[in-house]
Amino acid sequence: MNKKQITVVAILIVVAIAFTLGLNAYYQKVNQQQALIAQSNLAAMERSDAPVFGASTAKVTIVEFIDPACETCKTFYPLVKTLVKENPGRIKSVIRYAPLHPGSDQVVKALEAARLQNLFWPALEALFNGQASWASHSGPDINNIWPLLQGAGVNVEQARKDMGSEKIDQALRRDMGDLATLKISKTPTFFVNGKPMPTFSFEALQQLVSDEMKVQYGKP
User: Fold this and answer.
1) Helix, strand, or coil here: 217?
2) How far apart are CA 187 and CA 72, in angstroms?
3) Tens digits of per-residue pLDDT, 93-120?
4) Which of 20, 137, 140, 216 ranks highest by number of CB atoms within 10 Å?
């Protein structure tokens, strides 16, 4: 390798390092801003009537903003559920809607209709498990969600009627307003006791949960 080539390689390395440092600084700034927004708007994050998995008295709360059509949400869902199950009475998961994919608002309405029948969790799991049959980037095929919901025990005829209710419309409008307030633009987005993840990975979520467990219970 001649001197010219060495110089070019050195410049590329310096540029790469500068880019990485700049990117990390940017993500740190975004994370700090989101943390401030979250702490200032806790009511918009954890609504009292949102679906909860785990003991209501748990001191560590994982708030998940999900889109039923989101593949990453599907991947994270069982992992978070396992965290809650492995820490009974100490961790709970709260589901909030972020229907950012085209047409996902209709699927959210179907989930809320299932919730009126006390079948939210079976319905959510059925939709995640069968996601490939109805979800696409161009919009969901609503017709394909009904067999999945029926298999979860949902009275589909009643759910179709309830989807158009004012109660469900109001709940969805409120959630969309909360998304805007909290400046959430991607799914899934997680908060643990009001704190956002410093980086996006399941390991980062586990660490944040562990840190909060130490604060609340004196041990992870």
Assistant:
1) helix
2) 8
3) 999 999 999 999 999 999 999 999 999 9
4) 140
